[in-house]
Amino acid sequence: MSFPLASIAVYSSVTFGVFSNTQRFISQQRYGDSNHAPALSDLIAASMVAGVVSVGIGGPVDLIKIRLQMQTHERMDITSPHLGPIHCVSSILRQEGLAGIYRGAGAMLLRDVPGYCLYFIPYTVLCGWITPEGCISPSPSSVWMAGGIAGAISWGTATPMDVVKSRLQADGVYLNKYKGVIDCISQSYHSEGLKVSGIARKKLLLGINL
C-alpha cells in the first residue's frame, strides 16, 4: 500500500488541476473570461484531457499496485518476488522495457476518458443545481453530495473497463493469457458473461489469478 498511498495525492491533484486549468483555458479562449460558465462541450473537452493525463500518471501506479497485491505466499516459488515498489519498477523495466510500465494503458484510456466525463460533468451540473442563486461557490455539503453522486455514476460505468485494465496489467506475471484489449474483453465475456465485472473484482481483491 505504500506506493499508492504516497502517489494518490499527487495523482488526484494533478488530474483535478488539469481539468480545472483546461476548463479555464477554454473559457478564456472562447469567451474572453476564464471564469465564464462552461458549456457542455467545454466540460467534455476538459474531462477528456484530464482522462488522458490521468493515464500517464495512474497507469504505472495501478500496475505496480496490482503486481505487488498479486504476490501470495503460495506463489512466491513461481516467480521472483518484488521486494517493494522500487524493485517492482526496476524488474518491469528490465524484463519488459518502458512499454511494460504502461501495460494496459489502452484499456485505461477507454476507462478514464469516458469515466472522467461521467464524473466531472455530473459533478459540475449538480453543484450548479444545488448551489443557491447569488452564492459565489457551492457549500461543503453541496460538494460532498455532488461528488458522491458523480463518483457513483462514473465508477458504475467504468467498472467493466477497469476489470479489463486490471486483467491486462496482471497478465504476464504467471502466464500470458491475453493478446490485447479486444481479446481480453472477448475471453472474459465468453467465459463469465456480463457478470464478469463483479466476479473479477472479487478475485482481484482476494489475490486469485485473473
TrEMBL record:
- Please name the PROSITE patterns in this protein's record: SOLCAR
Alphabetized GO MF terms = transmembrane transporter activity
- What Gene3D superfamilies does its record include? Mitochondrial carrier domain
Recorded GO CC terms:
mitochondrial membrane
Out of the domains of life, which is the source? Answer: Eukaryota
Work out whether the entry's keyword set contains Repeat.
yes
Solcar repeat spans: 38-129, 138-210
Pfam families with a match to the protein in the record:
Mito_carr (PF00153)
Q: How does it sit in the membrane?
A: Multi-pass membrane protein
Keyword set, alphabetical order = Membrane, Mitochondrion, Repeat, Transmembrane, Transmembrane helix, Transport
Q: Does the keyword Ribonucleoprotein apply?
A: no
* Cellular localisation: Mitochondrion membrane
The record's similarity note reads: Belongs to the mitochondrial carrier (TC 2.A.29) family.
**PANTHER family hit by this protein:** MITOCHONDRIAL BASIC AMINO ACIDS TRANSPORTER-RELATED, SOLUTE CARRIER FAMILY 25 MEMBER 48
- The protein here is known as Solute carrier family 25 member 48
